[in-house]
Amino acid sequence: MNDTTKYLIHANITAAGVVERNDVVGAVFGQTEGLLGEEMDLRTLQDAKKVGRIDVEIQSKAGQTFGEITIASGLDRVETATLAAALETIEQVGPCRAEIEVSNIEDVRSAKRREVVERATEILSEFEAESMGVEDIVETVRQQARVADISEYEGLPAGPRVADSDAIVVVEGRADVLQLLKYGVKNAIAVEGTDVPESVADLTSERTVTAFLDGDRGGDLILKELSQVGDVDFVAVAPRDRSVEDLSRGEVMAALRDKIPYETVADAESPAHALADRDREAARTDGSTAVEHAPDAADDEGATAIAAGESGTETTVAEADAESTAERDAETATDAAEPTTLSDHVAAVIQRGSDTVRLLDADGQLLDEGPAADAVSLVGECEQRPSTVVLDGECTQKVVDVAAQRGVDVVVAARDGEYVKQPTSVQVRIAD
């Protein structure tokens, strides 16, 4: 009957007494006999393989019996509905009064169609995977490998380096951690809402902490809570009214590169909007104005402060006294300028103690950037071959090995490490 089944009739039965399965089956055959004519008689339909066996599941409780009747039908929709209605005419099962009510008629073919659609989708996915170009496959594997690295820290979504990294990035949710992992940032941890867990608060007292916020009110609330229960060193923010999980690789790296000390926005009513508006204003203005309104994260203490007025409009107010203005502006102008030479990159990465690594092409242009602890993976996974690596950390054996494998010409590091074997193709320089 399974091969010809089109519909399943489901009906509920209630009997005012204790009855057994055989009583129910007997009532179905006996009380529907002759009701619909010889052609629609249940025994005739079963002999013709147009109706399957009658399945009954019942249980008795407190002197009553409850159960479900299921009948497989190979009839058309009208005939199946007529047969189902005939079941509801049954008023007695065995010695007990009973009531049968059809709950639904299931179209078996619809379930099969769903299976066909699901299987077709799987087949199509496999076909498309086989049709991928080599570059597409490599990129897909790279991204999936990074996402697969997501782990947990005290039950919270986190990158694999959170437990042992000297610096961490605190974000809002799991999606933010996944997005940062895609871009090679493996030391992020999510607070999963505005109620900062105690485990994250304790973690911030031991690490250098960057709060990477969404550019909305939620980001402000998380920063406020985090600053009250833990220690925040730096603040980075997504563009206004955007989330970290929606940012491109370039936007993520730019936001982390332009992080500023927490004290700079500690008193702002809306730090997220203040930072976002600062960056937007800096993009609109010329070089000198940008320096005044968009200080670099490494500017001297008190260079500028971001505050929000009562009207809700964020403004930038100079805090330094008049005697140091010329000196401060000159230093800020140097900091705000994009590095154009190797020495500029060394100053930005190593001399400032940024705890990051930069990968440069042969022209000194930035290819990638990330935490210094991830230098090996960043060099190994960079889509374009780096010519120079600038590392605020120790140049280890693993660093020089992966540099040699990728064809890197020069590694500039803060400290020299111990090498079992130094490749002759890689020139290692120490910043000092």
Structural commentary:
This protein is of the alpha/beta class and 432 residues long. It folds into three domains: 7-110, LOR/SDH bifunctional enzyme, conserved domain (Alpha-Beta Plaits); 134-335, 3-Layer(aba) Sandwich (Dna Topoisomerase Vi A Subunit, Chain: A, domain 2), CATH 3.40.1360.10; 342-430. It has helices at residues 21-32, 42-47, 77-87, 108-130, 134-148, 174-182, 198-204, 217-229, 249-257, 271-284, 287-293, 325-336, 342-351, 375-381, 397-406, and strands at 7-15, 51-61, 64-73, 92-93, 96-107, 151-153, 156-158, 167-171, 188-190, 208-213, 234-237, 260-261, 304-308, 314-318, 356-360, 366-371, 388-395, 410-416, 427-430. The strands form five sheets. Strands 2-3-1-5-4 form a five-stranded antiparallel β-sheet. Strand 6 and strand 7 (156-158) form a beta hairpin. Helix 10 (271-284) runs antiparallel to helix 11 (287-293). The chain is elongated, with a radius of gyration of 35 Å.
Please write out the topology.
Layout: E1 7-15, H1 21-32, H2 42-47, E2 51-61, E3 64-73, H3 77-87, E4 92-93, E5 96-107, H4 108-130, H5 134-148, E6 151-153, E7 156-158, E8 167-171, H6 174-182, E9 188-190, H7 198-204, E10 208-213, H8 217-229, E11 234-237, H9 249-257, E12 260-261, H10 271-284, H11 287-293, E13 304-308, E14 314-318, H12 325-336, H13 342-351, E15 356-360, E16 366-371, H14 375-381, E17 388-395, H15 397-406, E18 410-416, E19 427-430
Parallel strand pairs: 8-9, 8-10, 10-11, 17-18, 18-19
Antiparallel strand pairs: 1-3, 1-5, 2-3, 4-5, 6-7, 11-12, 13-14, 15-16, 15-17
